[in-house]
Amino acid sequence: MNIRDIAKKVGVSSATVSRVINQSGYVKDETKQKVLAAIEEADFVPNAIARSLSIRDSSSIGVIVPDIANEFFSSIISGMGELAANKQYNIVLFDTGEMQEREHQYLQMAEGQRLSGLIITPVSELDRVTLDKLIQFENKGIPVVLVDRNIKNSSLDGVFVENDAAAYKGVEALIHAGHRKIAIITGPNTSMPGKDRLKGYKAALSDYKIELKEEYIVSGDFKIIKAYERTKELLQLPDPPTAIFASNNQTSLGVLKYLTEQRLKIGRDISIVGFDQIESLKIIDYRLSTIERDAKRQGYEAMAMLIDKLSNKESKSSGRKIFVPYQVVLRGSELTK
Amino acid sequence: MNIRDIAKKVGVSSATVSRVINQSGYVKDETKQKVLAAIEEADFVPNAIARSLSIRDSSSIGVIVPDIANEFFSSIISGMGELAANKQYNIVLFDTGEMQEREHQYLQMAEGQRLSGLIITPVSELDRVTLDKLIQFENKGIPVVLVDRNIKNSSLDGVFVENDAAAYKGVEALIHAGHRKIAIITGPNTSMPGKDRLKGYKAALSDYKIELKEEYIVSGDFKIIKAYERTKELLQLPDPPTAIFASNNQTSLGVLKYLTEQRLKIGRDISIVGFDQIESLKIIDYRLSTIERDAKRQGYEAMAMLIDKLSNKESKSSGRKIFVPYQVVLRGSELTK
DNA sequence: TATGCATATGTAACCGGTTACATAAAGGAG
DNA sequence: CTCCTTTATGTAACCGGTTACATATGCATA
To answer: Is the CA virtual torsion A255, A258, A261, A263 positive or negative?
Structure first.
C-alpha cells in the first residue's frame, strides 16, 4: 500500500495524494476530502523512509551519551524528549559507555542515517576522530550541539555549566569549613569537565594559599568503582585528607560506598562535596553537599538549540555557548566535627 | 556522492559496488580492492535510508518507555543498548511520560518509520488502541516484545517479573515482622504490574487472616508526588497503618519523602517495603527493604528476545514469557521497634 | 477581448540504494 | 571438443515518496 494505490482508488495522481498528506500546494477541498477518506479507509500510513530519502532528511536526531544509567544523562534525555516529540523528531539513542571506539562506531552509523542533527556528550575532549566527524557533519549541514562536555579547540555550539567556577565554589566551601587537607577524585583526564573541575579545585587551593599535594589529586573516571578504590587509597595515606571533592555524581557514590563500608560518617569523620546532585539522597535528606543544576533543563536547552540551528539553516556552529545555572547546596557534609 | 559515483570512479557498475559493500554475490578480489580504495578515498558512507527503502527494513528498533528519568527504565535501556549495537540496530527512543495519547502518537510515528521491531512498556494494560496497533505490527511482520508490563488478554511475548508472588513475599515479610496494619500505595489501576502487586498484597493478608481495610489501600500512579500525598493521608488516618507497601521505586521515594519531612524513621516509627531497588540508597546502606531484580538484565533479555524473533521470521508472538528472577532483600525497614 | 494570475492536477524524473535477470568468460567433466 | 557449472559483472526495474514543470481552467483587470 502506497500513495499510488491511494491515488488509484480515488482516481487522482500520486502528486495530489502527496499534496493532501503534506498540506502543500493547491488541492480542491472536494478532492482533499476524497483522498483523506481513502487514506482513512485503507488505514494507510505513508512510508517515512521513502519520504526521508526523497527530501534528504530523516527527521531524526541522534543523541550520543556516555552512560544512560547515570541519572544525570537520563534526566538530560528526558528533557530532550518532549521538545523533540513536539517538533516531530525521533530520537535515535546511542550509549557509548565512555568508550571512544564505540563513539566512533556510532558516529559512523549516524553518518549513514542522514540524521537531521546530532547532540553529543563526547567521551573525550581530545579525540581527533570524533571532532573531525562532528565538523564534517556541520559542513554537510547537519548541525551538532555538544551537551555537558566541550571539545578542546573546537568552535562547536553547546550547553554547558561553568565547571571551573562551580568546582571552585565547592572547594571553597570545604576551605571555609576549615579544611586544609582536601583531596579530589578527578574525572578522566581527557574530559573537559573533568579537567575544568580540577582547575577550579587548584585555583581555590591556590587562592587560599593551600599547598597542592600530589597525593591528594587522584584520578577517577566518573564511575563508581574507581572512585571507591581511590577513596580507599586516599584514606590509607599516612597523612590522609580530611575532605574529598568528588568530580561527579558517580564519583560521589563511589566515595560514599567506601565511607559507608568503613562506617565513616560524612560531616563528622570526613567531609565531602560532590559535583551534581543525587536525587534520591536529597529525598531522604542525606546530608551530602553538592553542586546542583537542572539536568533536565540542560537537555531541553540543548534540544532547543539544535532545533533553532535546524530552522536557521545557515547557522553553523560558532562556539555559541549556553551555560545553565548551578548552585552549591551545603547540607553539612562539608563540615567535620 | 552515491554508489554510482563510486562505480564511475572505478569503472564498474553500481551493482558491483553494492556487492562489495554488502559482501554479497561474486566479486573478483582485484575489483573489490579497487572499489574499497575508491570508497576510502572519497570517504564515502552509503545512505542507510536508501538501503532501508530498498530492503524494506530500517534496522531500527523502537523502544517505548513510560519514564526514562526513572532509574528502572534507564537501566532497562542500558541493558538493551549493547546488544542492539552488536547487531547493528539503532534504538529509536520514545518516552511517553505515562501518557496514553503520547503512546498512541508514538506508535503512529513508529508505523511510518517501518521499524524492524518494537519493545514497549505500555502505559496501560487495557488500552485497545495500543493493543490493536501492536497486533497490527505483528501481523505486518514487525515483532513486538513487551517489557515489564503485560497487556490484558494479549498473547504478546514479553519479559516480566512475577509481580504477584514478589509482592506477596514483600508483604509477608511485613507480616512476619509483626505487622497487622499494612497499607499499600498501588500503581495506576490500569497497569498490570500495579494490579498484580495489589493482588499479591491482598493474597498475603488473606492467607494470614488479616482483614483488608479499604482505607489502607490507596491508589498511586508510580510517581513520587502522588505517593507523597498518599502517605500523608495514610498517616493522618484515625487509625494509621504501621507499615506501608510501596508499589514501585518512585512510590518508595514518595513515601520516604514524607517520612523524612516528618522526621519519622523507617524501621522504627514506621515500616516499609518497596518494589524495586534504589541503587544510591543501597550504596549508603540506607536500610530500605526492597524487592529487587536486575533491570539491566531484563532489558537485555527483552532485546535478545526481539532479536530472536527478528531472525526466526515466522515466529509471531504466542504469549511467550520470560520471568526475570527477583529477590526480597530485607534491610530492616520492615521492622518496628 | 486580451492578458495575467490564482487555482488545480498530472507527468515523470529523482532520491540512492538492492537485486532479479541477462550475459559472458573460465574451468572441469565426460 | 562439447556441455555444464562457477565466477564475474552489467542492465534496469523497483522501493515509495517529493517536486519541478507542464497543462488547463476560472476569474479579475486593463
So the answer is: negative
Question: What amino acid is encoded at A85 in this protein?
Answer: A
Nearest to A283 among B53, B260, B285 (CB): B260
Rounded distance between C-alpha atoms, residue A246 and residue A174, angstroms: 12
d(CA B4, CA B169): 64
Q: Cell for A317?
A: 556552529
Mean pLDDT computed over A144-166: 96
Q: What confidence tens digit (pLDDT) does each residue in B26-68 have? A: 999 999 999 999 999 999 999 999 999 999 999 999 999 999 9
Write the CB contacts of A34 (distance below 8 Å, at least 6 apart in sequence). A10, A12
Mean pLDDT of B285-290: 96
Question: pTM of this prediction?
Answer: 0.94
Residue B203, all three cell numbers = 493474597
Report the distance separating Cα A210 and Cα A213, nearest Å.
Answer: 9
pLDDT in tens, A292-307: 999 999 999 999 999 9
Look up cell 555559541; give the residue.
A320
CA distance B266 to B256: 8
Residue the block writes with cell 535501556:
B77
Q: Kindly tell me the burial class for residue A30, based on how many C-beta atoms sit within 10 Å of its own C-beta (0-12, 13-18, 19 or more).
A: exposed
Per the prediction, chain A carries an average pLDDT of: 95
Interatomic distance A27 CA / C7 C1' (Å): 8
Give nearest nucleotide to A28 (CA–C1'): C8
DSSP state of A289: E
